[in-house]
Amino acid sequence: MSDIIKETFGICTSRLLRATQLEFEPDETEINMWVVPSQSNKAIKYYVRHSLDCESGKMFWSCTCDDFFFRKGHCKHILAVRVRNMA
Ligand SMILES: [Zn+2]
To answer: Mean pLDDT, the chain, as a whole number?
Structure first.
């Protein structure tokens, strides 16, 4: 894992490495949306979105998982999509 990615996300490398092992696929109905199956239960799917915040005019990331909901930070699903899209 490159230092650039590590600095960009400001998180530890082991967490990033785990994120890169997640499999995901683009959603067929919407651009800038990805479907990431739960690691513990493949029947559960989370939706990662990169969308525009109309008030601030900035792009932001979101995910439908509990981790994102409670911590409001980047969960591993968002990391998975972001890291793979940078590579
Ligand atoms: Zn998530």
So the answer is: 85
pLDDT digits (tens, 9 = 90+) for 14-23: 777 788 888 8
**Pairing of β 58-63 and β 33-37:** unpaired
**The whole model's pTM is what?**
0.77
Which residues line ion ligand 1, judged by CB < 5 Å? 46, 63, 65, 68, 75, 77
DSSP at 40: S
- Most confidently predicted of 4-8, 19-23, 31-35: 31-35
Between the CA of 56 and the centroid of ligand 1 the distance, in Å, is 23
Question: What's the half-sphere exposure (Cβ side, CA atoms, 13 Å) at 5?
Answer: 19
User: How many other C-beta atoms are found inside a 10 Å radius of the C-beta of residue 36?
Assistant: 24
- For the chain, the domains span 3-86
